[in-house]
Write a structure and sequence with these properties.
Elements: E1 4-5, H1 7-12, E2 18-21, H2 25-30, E3 39-40, H3 46-49, E4 58-62, H4 68-79, E5 83-87, H5 90-96
Parallel strand pairs: 1-5, 2-3, 2-4, 4-5
Length: 104
């Protein structure tokens, strides 16, 4: 499975996906907007919550800029058999592509 998804592609394929906000607490607090329906999970504790995620559903996650945090979480989830990808460019890339966000 691909590791990432382009924001433009996700805009057309959003339905039915589990959306996870895995920004670090400081990044989330500094920019509280989020994708509609996104659930925040602390990336520092991925080992604690990864086992609760469905393995039969597409998971799309994002951090602030689509860098090290997204890559680390995708690695952890894919290693557990989850169908996980991250948004290229993170929430910043999503907004730059015209993706809608909600205030917290």
């Amino acid at each position: 499975m691909a590791r990432s998804i382009k924001p433009e592609t996700l805009k057309n394929e959003l339905g039915g996906k589990l959306i996870l906000d895995v920004r670090r607490i400081a990044d989330r607090d500094a920019a509280p907007e989020r994708l509609a329906g996104a659930r925040w999970l602390d990336p520092e504790h991925v080992a604690e919550w990864a086992g609760e995620l469905p393995k039969d559903r597409d998971i799309v996650l994002y951090c602030a800029r689509g860098g090290s945090v997204s890559n680390a979480v995708v690695d952890a989830l894919q290693a557990r058999g989850c169908r996980a990808r991250f948004i290229e460019g993170g929430i910043a890339g999503w907004k730059a592509a015209g993706g809608e966000v909600l205030d917290r």
